[in-house]
Amino acid sequence: MALVTTKEMFRKAYDGGYAIGAFNVNNMEIVQGITEACREEHSPVILQVSKGARAYANHTYLVKLVEAAVIECPEIPIALHLDHGPDFETCKSCIDGGFTSVMIDASSKPFEENIEITRKVVEYAHDHGVVVEAELGTLAGIEDDVKVAAHAASYTRPEEVEEFVTKTGCDSLAIAIGTSHGAYKFTPEQCTRNEKGVLVPPPLRFDVLEEVSRRLPGFPIVLHGSSSVPQEYVKMVNDNGGRMPDAIGIPEDELRHAASLSVCKINIDSDLRLAMTGTIRQFLNEHPEKFDPREYLKPARANIKELVRHKLRDVLGCAGKAD
Ligand code: G3H
Ligand code: 13P
Ligand code: ZN
What we know:
Strand order of the largest sheet: 1-2-3-4-5-8-12-13
Structural class: alpha/beta
Distance between the termini: 11 Å
Shape: globular
Order of helices and strands: HEHEHHEHEHEEEHEEEEHEHHEHH
Bound molecules: glyceraldehyde-3-phosphate, 1,3-dihydroxyacetonephosphate, zinc ion
CATH class: Alpha Beta
Oligomer: single chain
CATH superfamily: Aldolase class I
Helix content: 40-55%
Number of helices: 12
């Protein structure tokens, strides 16, 4: 199977009450860990590349790694997506350069400007058989070189979504309902504590999601900032020389619930980073004499694979949905 767009994936996910995982890729081991899990679980998958990933690894290397995964995993649909495209030129370069999906993120711009930029990308993308994700609302946290403080974040306004989608022609819409980028999604002050003293984050705004879906029936919704920040990996980092105090993510049961509704794409990056970094830290701590990168990248890749397998089966619900 060649690279596919997300059109068919989203239609099936919407009807089937599950979501497709959109995992960020930056190097070979990450691509392999994700796609080996998807292949074994027979899951469709979106591999996404940020502006930072293109700057780090180079566009061509990333496209060729993803094309290698398509050859190695012929039974599953794979889409190659630009994550947080900052402008028309970046989107165009990815559309011309082999991507099947792009995000134009003009969510920090005024409403009319967001519509204008998004519509321009949609026109070019659709002429080239590529689909477009757009965004309304502002997430907190860190994405690429942009840091948005919690007080500057704003939920998506449901009353804007019909006009936005109609005027832009976008194929999916990322909305802000309380998720956040990075490994520090909430401050301890924003959380409560359960009976064991463990921090519990504020719940996602499912009322906003439901109102958006009521206004856009059948339309695929995207959630960014959806890492759960597994505490076993935070501990692995901290027990092996790292320092990530108060790292906290989105509870997985909330993501599962979102996936059963209109959310068709769930973005996960920070969890992969944690699995990789925790594993490498632990390995090097336990084997200070080792210096062959293959020896620590191998268990890191294996743990990424297990993490992704868990997401596909227990969070996204897309295991077995490749056909
Ligand atoms: O939303 C941002 C993603 O986690 C990508 O992060 O820009 O550091 O590659 P990055
Ligand atoms: P996390 O930082 O929660 O993994 O979010 C990733 C993301 O939204 C990529 O666009
Ligand atoms: Zn994002």
